[in-house]
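DM from R.C. (forwarded with permission)

"hey, sorry to bug you on a friday — could you get me a structure for this? deadline for the figure draft is monday and I only need the backbone to look sensible"
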Amino acid sequence: MIHVIATITALPGSRDAVLELFTKNRPAVLAENGCISYEAVVDVPDFGSIQTPLGNDTFAVIERWESAEALKAHGASAHMAEYGRNTKPLLASRVINVLQAC
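My reply, with the result:
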């Protein structure tokens, strides 16, 4: 199984617009072969000193895929290319971590 943590930082004030595009694209991703889970997450407000907040402009995408091949096919899909084109002007940064269990 492959795990992905994508940390997405929108331009100031643009996070909600990016999350709206994410939500519209999510059903197509969940329908892909090998997708186990795919969800956007934001900070739990005022959780305390244990938390390192992402901040108001940032969210994370937590993904699980059956295989590296499934993840690569996801990255090459037409709906992800469209999502990328639509979100690019709204983003400050994007960090993708592809992980496996040890």
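R.C.: lifesaver. Residues 15-30 form the longest helix (16 residues).
me: no worries. The first strand starts at residue 2 and ends at 10.
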